[in-house]
Please model this.
Amino acid sequence: MNAGFQLFGEHILWTDLTGNILSLAVVWLAMRKTMWTWPVQLAGALLLLAASIDAHVPGNALKQILFCALAVYGWLSWTCGTRDDHGLLVRPATARERIVLLAVLVLGTVLVAELFIHLTWLHVAWSPWANAYIFVGSAIATFAQSRALVDFWIIWMLVDLVGVPLAFQSGL
Model:
């Protein structure tokens, strides 16, 4: 499971590298509104799940399980949204949808952080708030993408402000 290579003194897991490449491909595919977005999302999430388990990052592993479920939901949602002759309707979120997304981000982060603090078997006590924010924010961004809301880009950028430094700190 630890298969990888050395790059600039860092051990790079093949599962992590390939999963992240597929995640970048998802961005490109989503911009083109292709249904391939979702199976590629699922494959990337499964590879990143393996990398997270290998790196002993259970919060990230749970996030990848959630991404698998959201990839299936997104695939079904986009399939329903493209049945007419007009293709997938990509649009900005309404003011009400943005308020709901933000409220879920805040409340979800608090609830998940409390779970991470009290569920010691998850081993995320060293950064429960950051992990909770990444977990909830990632779920919201993927959900917004599945609903064809352009606002998911903003949510992803906000999540990555915390997620990228935390991934480096975790050795991923």
User: Anything to note?
Assistant: Strands lie at 4-7, 10-13. DSSP finds six helices and two strands in the chain. The mean pLDDT is 84. The longest helix spans residues 58-81.
